[in-house]
Structure formats: structure tokens, C-alpha cells
Design brief:
It is a single chain. By secondary structure, this protein is of the alpha/beta class. It has one domain: CoaB-like (Rossmann fold, 3-Layer(aba) Sandwich), CATH 3.40.50.10300. It contains 5 helices and 12 strands. The longest helix has 17 residues. The two termini are 19 Å apart. The structure holds cytidine-5'-monophosphate. Cytidine-5'-monophosphate binds next to helix 3 and strand 9.
């Protein structure tokens, strides 16, 4: 049995007490991955941004809001885990300043100054021990496989799941599962629950049981 940490859903970056930047990630892929991992007998911790989806009751769920909070919670759990699946869509940008009061309209528009948030998968890919593994996701619209492989190397992932842009907030997904050496070990299309089972099957085979 392995202890697997799964990041899931979007994050929010507040501009003021009531407005925030986010994206349309639903957390559905993370929930399906959690179910698949539990079915294989693994211990699962989900670190999730704000979502409507329900996670399996047997998973330990940590709720976070911002990308920084997701990084801190994931880092804490990963220290005691065997692997990480980065299925979240964390906000890549945050406002340089958060206004303490609601911003009022001035009739002159508003320029936002944004800075990059930390990259959770890349941070933990760089920190992982020899006995730990990290699986990332990639969503590209051109040179899809090549860019996924470049991303896997850059973020020091052991495997990457290249998925279609239609996956966001959809019940279905279409993925290529790519190993560290660039080999596409599986292409899977269908409901996210089916795709999650195939991803966990490949993780089990190549990263948990280390079969050639
Ligand atoms: O760079 P990009 O966002 O395309 O990479 C996607 C992968 O990186 C996913 O596994 C996603 O969960 C992860 N990611 C992250 N932290 C970020 C941005 C993306 O862990 N701030």
C-alpha cells in the first residue's frame, strides 16, 4: 500500500475581500483519481481548492483556498507520503497587493499588477526523495506531446498525463500517459472515472511496483 497525495481543483487569489482570480477546474479528475487509488488499497490525501465535487469518504481531504496554501499543505503531507499526483489547476498568478477593503469603481478602469504563484509540482519534484515519485498533468493546445515531455523534465516528474483542453469542467477526458523516458505507455479516452483507473494502473505498474 502506498500513501498518495492528490492536488485537486482550482485555487483562488483574492484582489480584495470579495473578488478573486480563479479558473473552471471542477476537481472531478482529482475525485476520480482518489477513488481509483482507494480501490487499489492505497491511502489517499486530497489537497483541494474550493469545489462542488464530493471526494470519497475514505480519503483525507484538506481544503485550501490559495496556491500558497495548497503548496504548504501538499508539502506537509508529501513529507510522509510515497507519491504525489498534481491534478489541481492552481492559479498561476496572484495580485501583487490585496486591497484590504472592497475596491470601488472610479470610472477609469483598473490595472492589475500580478506576480507568479509558486509551482507546487515543480517545487515537490525538486524536493522529492529517491523513494518518492511525482506525476504531473499537462494541458496544451499545440505540440501537445512534445510540450508535455518538456514540462515533465522541467518539473522533474516521473510521469506526465497529457490531457485535452476539453477536459476542464467536463465529465470526460482523453489522455496520453507518458513515462520519464518519453515512452507513451497508454492512451485513454472516456469518462474521468475510467481514465483515472488507467492512470492509477500505470502508476501502480511503473512507479509503485517498478515493473519494466
Ligand atoms: O505549467 P502547467 O500549469 O501547464 O503545469 C500543469 C501541472 O503543474 C499540473 O500537474 C498542475 O497541477 C501543476 N501546477 C502546480 N502548481 C502551479 C501550476 C501548475 O502544481 N502553480
Amino acid at each position: 500500500m502506498a500513501h498518495i497525495v492528490i492536488t485537486s481543483g482550482p485555487t483562488r487569489q483574492y484582489l480584495d475581500p470579495v473578488r478573486y482570480l480563479t479558473n473552471s477546474s471542477s476537481g472531478k479528475m482529482g475525485a476520480c483519481l482518489a477513488e481509483s487509488a482507494l480501490r487499489l488499497g492505497h491511502q489517499v490525501t486530497v489537497v483541494s481548492g474550493p469545489v462542488q465535487v464530493s471526494y470519497p469518504t475514505d480519503a483525507c481531504v484538506l481544503s485550501v483556498v490559495t496556491t500558497q496554501e495548497m503548496l504548504e499543505a501538499t508539502q506537509r503531507c508529501f513529507a510522509m507520503a510515497d507519491g504525489l499526483i498534481g491534478a489541481a489547476a492552481p492559479c498561476d498568478y496572484m495580485p501583487v497587493e490585496i486591497a484590504p477593503q472592497k475596491l470601488s469603481k472610479t470610472g477609469r478602469g483598473l490595472q492589475l499588477a500580478l506576480q507568479e504563484t509558486p509551482d507546487i509540482v515543480a517545487t515537490l519534484g525538486a524536493l522529492k526523495r529517491m523513494d518518492q515519485w511525482v506525476v504531473g498533468f499537462a494541458l496544451e493546445t499545440e505540440d501537445v506531446r512534445f510540450r508535455a515531455i518538456v514540462k515533465m523534465a522541467k518539473k522533474r516528474c516521473d510521469m506526465i498525463v497529457s490531457n485535452s483542453a476539453e477536459a476542464m469542467n467536463s465529465p470526460d477526458n482523453s489522455v496520453e500517459i507518458i513515462k520519464r523516458d518519453g515512452e507513451v505507455v497508454e492512451q485513454a479516452t472516456g469518462p474521468k472515472s475510467f481514465v483515472a483507473d488507467r492512470i492509477l494502473h500505470q502508476i501502480q505498474k511503473h512507479l509503485i511496483e517498478h515493473q519494466p
